[in-house]
């Protein structure tokens, strides 16, 4: 090969390398421009990508100012058009704060939710199941406000955690409605609160002899039980024995008492159904603890 041909070959190779380098630099610059400048959005990118896989890389438009607790609200866009909304809310769980990212369709229905956060510390095997699809998948397709054990089945033994997640979803929906109303959209639907005036109500499940026992407890202004209902769709206590915890002869023992209550001290167990009776006592005490904690916050 002639020397001039060798030089020509090297020159062509050098040109190719230079062009490739420029192309890579331009591509990297474009990627940097598309990368989220908002650190909170960057941290939530994985969850948001799962909720809105079709969204543009830079298709997140903030709907309000950043909140001190790290919550956010974004309109999500594809090709410049809004395809949904993403909001993050934090609620107090059993072991600490729980972050919930909720994705909403433009109709207001829930597309899906993601549960977790850096401070997530719910009990392994119980409240930690709030991250599982078996629990989070219940929210998809439903329109808030939602009620635990009516619209959403609580995690057995982790009612406080389940309630926290549901409350966060309802708060996110209420916040979204308020933001949309400010832009001329229809008025938001009211979100139910765990506290309504002086009467406070909570639904709590506790494990009985045959399965979960749902207890709906209402406390009056002084913190005493004013109403109680026992049962639930999955109630499977033994007929004629444990099933008697639903009867007034047992439930009325709680009315007027201020939790915590104790079996054998003002509350007589159903004969032959100590496990079922204890489940109701545990649920009443857990409900009171949850309601008192909510009132304090």
What does it look like?
The longest helix is centred in the first third of the chain and has 32 residues. With 297 residues, this protein is an alpha+beta fold. β7 and β8 form a beta hairpin. It contains 7 helices and 11 strands.
Structural class label: alpha+beta
Largest β sheet strand count, sense and barrel closure = 5 strands, antiparallel
Distance between the termini: 84 Å
The count of strands amounts to 11
H/I helix tally = 7
Mean pLDDT: 80
Low-confidence region ranges: 22-36, 185-198
Percent in helix: 25-40%
Strand order of the largest sheet: 1-2-3-4-5
Strand content: 15-25%
Our Rg estimate from Cα atoms comes to 27 Å
Q: Give the overall silhouette.
A: elongated
Order of helices and strands: HHHEEEEEHHEEEEHEEH
Overview in brief:
This protein is an alpha+beta fold. The chain is 33% helix and 23% strand.
